[in-house]
Amino acid sequence: MTGAQGADDPRTALEQAVRRQVLDEGPPVLLTEERKAPDAMRRWGRDHVVRACVIREAMLERAALRDSSQGVLLRGLVVVGHLDLNCLTTQANVRILDCHLRDGLTLSNARLSSLDLSGCLIEDGDDSCLGADNLTLQFDLRLEGTHVMGHAAVATVSLHGAQISGCVFAAGLHVGSKNGPGIDATNLVVKGDVYLDSATISARHRDGAALTLRGAEIGGRLHLSRGTVDNPRGPAVDCDRTRVNTGLLMRELSASGSTSPTGTLSFTDATLGGKADLVRARIRNHSGPSLTASRLRVDGDLDLSHAQMTSGGERSALNLFSTKITGTLSLSHARLRNRSGCVLNGQRLVVDGDAHLNSATFSTRSITHAAVNLFSAKIGGYASLSSARIKNELGTALFAVQLKVGGDLRLNEEFTARGGGTDGAIRLHASTIEGALDLSTAHLRSGFGPALSARSMEVMADFRADNIHITAQDLSSDSSGHHPHPKVDLRGSRIRGRLEVSPETVRANRSPGRKLVALDDLEYGVLDARIDVKQWIVLLADETPAYRSQPYQHLASRYREQGDEFEARQVLIAQHRDQLKRTRDQSVLLRFWQQLAGITIGFGHQPWRAVFGLVGIFMAMSVLALWGGGLDGEGCRSVERIGRAVESSLPLIRMQQLEGCSPGSGAAGLFFVLASWVAQVGAWMFATLFIVGLTNAVRRRPS
Questions:
Q1: What is the percent of the chain where pLDDT is above 70?
Q2: What is the rounded distance in angstroms from the CA atom of residue 695 to the CA atom of residue 133?
Q3: Which DSSP letter does residue 657 get?
Q4: For this UniProt entry, which segments traverse the membrane (predicted)?
Q5: Closest CA to 329 of 351, 348, 359, 307
């Protein structure tokens, strides 16, 4: 019976009015006209009190007898007792606004048109304050300005498996738990947007997150801008395997967590359609990662500009392992720090667009992990770290082995990389850069290892290193007794365009205890016209760790291609000199032959020098023949004496008409005979070297 109650009705006048409203027989019950703070709601008197059983009975009766689409509107009540609406099915739009539900509310397996709990204060001591597992709503869920405060070890708000065909409006939501997770929305399905802007969610649980959206599917956008999510014992936001169809907006989010291996924010295996916006987000973790996004897929841009992340432990502060971004990745002006592990893990990261890391800061102190790890990452456009700062006092700063960049790799505009250990500051081994590698005005600093190690790298355009500043620890030898690493290691690399470096840059980066560059098997397409051949020779001879023939041969080939044959010969001569200077595994005879070839014919590249040797022998023998007194005879005139000098200095020429002018029998004659023998040996040697030089027989590549 739903009419007037008898005199013995135990319900108060307020409860009767509430019952009539629920049964659609009376006006809305509105005991307040404005939103109250939680403390003020707790001070409400008995004139606001309604028993939970009255509302439950009325709702069940309405659903069973006279359900309609007319809404239920209650405002300003204090509901005493647990309000159990489990399995309730009604067409009504239920609006319980600005009410104090002292003992919680459950709606598990309920089916409603819509639910609005905006402005309510919901508390509970034994279970979830708001339990709505498998709740089904035809339209929206509203929790705007709602305060939910729990004490139990279970989730304060539970929407596990709920299905909402509209949107979730929860801007300004406050959820707090003293002993458990905050919001558990695992496998939640929302067809529209989820608005959690300016929400404050806190939890204290090791395994449960403050906000869990694991496996959830959101048809619209997830909004959490200017929100605060905190869990001092575990993760803050768990969005693993979450799918958000039209974007993620977490601008100026403040999140903190601790100890969780998944991180303060976790998006592992998640899919985000549209842009993911975390601009100016502040994410902290005292003993674990900040943001873990392994295998995340973003069908748009991932914007972390001006973000701040602080982490501790071996795991990466920002983990983008195998993440796929179809748009642009931006970390410009971000500040990322990890006390003892990797800062940015981008191994196998794929970015179809550009990567902007301009003016970002990455710092750590780790021996085993690089500050920024881009191993086997692929950037479809250009990658820019202009003015960025990467610091790792104990290990590698930037590890980008097998990196592939579709455009330029920009490490310029005061870019700074500081690394320790033996691996160096920057490692670009086997990387492929389709554009230019720009290191102009960069500052690189390393300890025992090279500042830039780029073995087997391929650059399709120019390599720019003007005004680069390189600092490395000066050591005559390392602890193993080997030569220390050079400051720059370009062994086996290939630069299709111009190798741009000014002479002033080369001079500025020399140091007495450390070689500047290793160029073994380096190939480059175009020479920098600012460096002349003498400066190149000094660089190859004095600033490389050991003698290698290929750098000289390649430099000479570049000069030949330009038509500068004279410069090419100078390079090849310098190659032989460097070989003699720095190679000690040759026999004494071979070294003597090479030294002699260098003096006489310029190692085969200046055979005309041998002519001066022949001329010198001829002049010496002429002087001896004319004034030495060793020749005598009736027909020994000056002409015949010169003929004897010719025979001695030119072994291929014999003059038969000189029988009357022969060496005498005295000491002078004997001296002339001995001098002739020596002259003939020298002449044969010079003649042979001249012929060999002309035929390029000794123009071989030294080992």
A1: 84
A2: 93
A3: G
A4: 670-694
A5: 351
**Residues 6+ away with beta carbon under 8 Å from 263:** 235, 257, 285, 288, 289, 290, 291, 292, 315, 319
Can you give the length of the chain in residues? 703
Position 479 scores a pLDDT of: 47
110 is a domain residue: yes
User: Residue 2: exposed, middle, or buried by beta-carbon count in 10 A (0-12, 13-18, 19+)?
Assistant: middle
- Residue 655: give the domain boundaries: 609-694
Q: Other CB atoms closer than 10 Å to residue 282's CB: what's the count?
A: 18
Structure tokens at 260: 């969780």
Tell me whether residue 460 is in a domain: no
* DSSP conformation letters of 588-636: HHHHHHHHHHHHHHGGGT-TTHHHHHHHHHHHHHHHHHHHSS-EESTT-
Please write the tens of the pLDDT for every residue from 365-424. 999 999 999 999 999 999 999 999 999 999 999 999 999 999 999 999 999 999 987 888
Tokens in use for 426?
Answer: 């920057």
Identify the domain boundary among 123, 156, 184.
184
Q: Which amino acid is at 521?
A: D
Which pair of structure tokens corresponds to residue 428?
A: 């670009």
Q: What is the mean pLDDT of residues 341-353?
A: 97
Cα separation of the two ends of the chain: 109
Helix (H/G/I), strand (E/B), else coil: 5: coil
Note the pTM of the prediction, 2 decimals. Answer: 0.84
Q: What are phi and psi of 257, to 5 degrees?
A: -150, -175
Q: Say if 43 falls within a structural domain.
A: yes
Question: Mind listing the pLDDT tens digit for each residue in 484-541?
Answer: 789 999 999 999 999 999 999 999 999 887 899 999 999 999 988 899 999 998 999 8
pLDDT at residue number 702: 45
Per-residue pLDDT tens for 12-56?
999 999 999 998 888 999 998 888 899 999 999 999 999 999 999
344 by DSSP, 3-state: which? strand
Q: Which of 27-36, 449-458, 668-677 has the highest mean pLDDT?
A: 449-458
CA distance 102 to 105: 9
- The domain total for the chain is 2
Model pLDDT, residue 663? 72
Degrees, nearest 5: CA angle 365-369-373? 115
Nearest to 406 by CA among 328, 465, 330: 328
Residue 16 counted as domain residue: no
